[in-house]
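fwd from M.: "can u put these together and see what the complex looks like"

so here's what she sent:
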Amino acid sequence: MSLMSKQVTLSQAAELLRSVEECIILTHRYPDGDAIGSSCGLAILLQSMGKRAKVVCGDPFAARFSHSTDGVKPETVSPDAPVVTVDLADVQLAGAEYTALAERAFLAIDHHGTNTGYADYTFLDRDAAAACELVALLARELAVPLTRDLANCIYTGICTDTGCFKYPSTSARTHRIAAELIDAGADAAAISRIMFDTKTPARVMLEKAVMDSITYGYGGKLAVTLLSKAVIEESGAEEADINGLSAMARQIEGVELALFLRETGRERYKISARSGDLVDAAAFCAKFGGGGHRRAAGCKLEGDLDTVRQRLIEAAGEVL
Amino acid sequence: MSLMSKQVTLSQAAELLRSVEECIILTHRYPDGDAIGSSCGLAILLQSMGKRAKVVCGDPFAARFSHSTDGVKPETVSPDAPVVTVDLADVQLAGAEYTALAERAFLAIDHHGTNTGYADYTFLDRDAAAACELVALLARELAVPLTRDLANCIYTGICTDTGCFKYPSTSARTHRIAAELIDAGADAAAISRIMFDTKTPARVMLEKAVMDSITYGYGGKLAVTLLSKAVIEESGAEEADINGLSAMARQIEGVELALFLRETGRERYKISARSGDLVDAAAFCAKFGGGGHRRAAGCKLEGDLDTVRQRLIEAAGEVL
């Protein structure tokens, strides 16, 4: 956390939001359920307070997130409107197109311990299972009623970031918020089905490719999977089809560190690390300039596949 | 619900439990997480009230449920101790060995709308997502503190019966109970991981084989998958590794009928049919002398693979 950014409490964050008349809400590229849910949720929240809000992201939001996106009114805001980021740990994660926008953020709402403190003010709660959990707290603090649309956004982020309440980040507070969301009419079962129990044919193709790619190391404690650009293109997959593939190998009995290599360009790989109790995935990724959470982190590597894989396997040996 | 059984409220059920000094707790055969969690949970609850309680079931509880079973003290009760059933909709489901015991139940604690009313008193709440949800309510009603062991039992039943909070049966109450369980120290993440996110290497191999085998028909409304005897043997899979493979193709977007062919012998196939809203899987399987539920049914076919597959595809055309 940079010394440049002032850490603010929930009530201070609420006060900052109250102070704006319009707002650009920015989240990270490769948007997942929490990025989409928290950005759309915050937009709905601010719009219901009579403010103009617009969500921006370096990638489009997939159609299956319509439960979250439908509630946001399309609005125009001035290009120099204040910027609030959600679920954005680092300005780089906004993508090249939006890095500059992220750099002028006045408020960051985040749950990543690795948040770099790029914003003027940072509302960071690393105990929150999702950025959406913070949107729920802000709604309560600002006395904004949970409409069904807002509840759907928040539920989407919470259920996706917790693997539907399975991950250790799920707290009693997470469940209490979920209860409020259901009371508010959230389409919890329908959203859960879309997020977890519906696979596009493209997703099925990607899962096959990932499973076919599994290699093990260190007596089965390491599993490495690969998703090539060619397979992604051949499958016609959208970004949403790719989310969560990184966790597949983590489910295998005995695997303590699962590394998922996604080819993003020529000799460029985005690595997602998912770990068990014994390994700190964030510390592992830090070896390569990356970061994240203890159980889920990421980094980038360049080079030919064999070299990249070998570097990762060697580094894994130091933590396994 | 039989007229012979008196429907009781939560407080009446609690009063009935208070009145016993010892108790045999019976649940259904092929015990799942809710059967195990609710029977062990009730035993822990009664034991903590100073009563003797013993759990019985027609099948052993699997080792992966140790989070639930470990908290139960082994105790001896007289053979004619009062019988309480949990999660048992019908005496037949106790299995032949325990049908007579079920028939003399004085209290049934259940959440199945199909409960036949075999017990003297029935505490039935069909809005409960799990029998374990009722054990949680009883603990509160009886002012029994939620110990970690008791919380683990209840969490196990709730998470398994709701597909980890995904199914429509999950209510705001379900989440509020989960919050209390986590406050009480339930190992929620560890239990969820064991129940949902742990795959044996054999299971991974079978899933790969099933996914590799997918063929589609009728514009993607039919998906047919195959698991050969050779693959099962090569993988070293146990029966538990095969459970649920039939549902894999059902998750694919657009698939209304998923047929899973499991080779059981030379030119012998066991077919599992899983359907969406539009197709009656039981009616489909009835064409081949099988049966089951609307969304999940089965049948058997003999012949060479191509012929079997062709017969199924033709029959599928009549229902799609």
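replying to her w this: Chain B has two domains: 6-196, 201-319.
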